[in-house]
Amino acid sequence: MSSSPQLPVARPAKAFPCGPRSGMVRRVFDLPPHQIPTAENWFTFGSRTPRSPRRASSVCLVRDCSKGVETYLTFRPGGSPMGNVAFPGGSHEASDRATYQWFGPSLSQWSKRMDVLDQQLVQAHIVCAIRELFEETGILLAGTDEQSIIEMTDPEEWMGAREAIAGQDLPFDEFLRRRGLGLRTDLLRPVSHWLNPNFALRRFDTWYFAATVPNRQEATLLRGKGKWGGWQVASGVLAQRNTSELGDLVGQPNTVGLNFSRISYPAVEMMLEAMSEANGVVAYLSRARSLDLKHPDLLVRDGIYYLEVLGSMSAESSRPWQAAAGRQ
């Protein structure tokens, strides 16, 4: 194996039109340092069979502030394929396919919107999103009926439940059933679908959703596990993405001194761009999006490794998604 290439100078991701009539744009992002040895090995020894991806879900919490749309970002240790700084989320568990009380669009409606025929898989993505959001932030999208939403009344009890669910000592479906709660799936919006590049040692097939924070709930880190989390103005993060400002704020060994592309993942950066362009949270949530699978590829230029993403130049439209209520 040859020595690792010199890292490029920090700068924001660039866009390259693929052709005057293609309607597609090619985005190029810096590769995080921890992924360079794997990328180098893949390139040096030739493409091989990619590792099978795990199913995963993630949630972008959003809220309005005087500077635009804010979102909740967290630090994910261990060189997460979803980015070292990313939205709350994680991989599917067996309980995500259990039976749940269900409020909001039916599974058939969700299946049509996500263009996924397997309704059990659709359920798993939605339940995983709500469960991981609760584990990592304490935000619970659940209620006793289609109009109610649970309130956090006892922070210590809430944290204990989160720890038990995260440790798989308490199934999520049992936690909800004990409290007579159903999933408020109408509070989620699908916003993007990503598959990690072929060279990665750990790969996720991830659906990203967006949601607002219910009244009388507050995002907090999971005790003993979370290292950093906080609300960030999307436009502010992008304005400083060619600097190490956010990485220094997170303060972890694999974030300090690095620009945004090197501590995150193209999915996060591109969703932050959509947030920054929206005229508030309502506009951001109501926009219909192209949910075609995005699959970054490895790009090598002058011995330097990048991630390349091909996508539509008009990935979003102003047509709102009508989240009709109902059950399967």
UniProtKB/TrEMBL annotation:
<dbReference type="GO" id="GO:0016818">
    <property type="term" value="F:hydrolase activity, acting on acid anhydrides, in phosphorus-containing anhydrides"/>
</dbReference>
<keyword id="KW-0464">Manganese</keyword>
<keyword id="KW-0460">Magnesium</keyword>
<keyword id="KW-0479">Metal-binding</keyword>
<dbReference type="InterPro" id="IPR039121">
    <property type="entry name" value="NUDT19"/>
</dbReference>
<dbReference type="GO" id="GO:0046872">
    <property type="term" value="F:metal ion binding"/>
</dbReference>
<dbReference type="InterPro" id="IPR015797">
    <property type="entry name" value="NUDIX_hydrolase-like_dom_sf"/>
</dbReference>
<keyword id="KW-0378">Hydrolase</keyword>
<protein>
    <submittedName>
        <fullName>NUDIX hydrolase</fullName>
    </submittedName>
</protein>
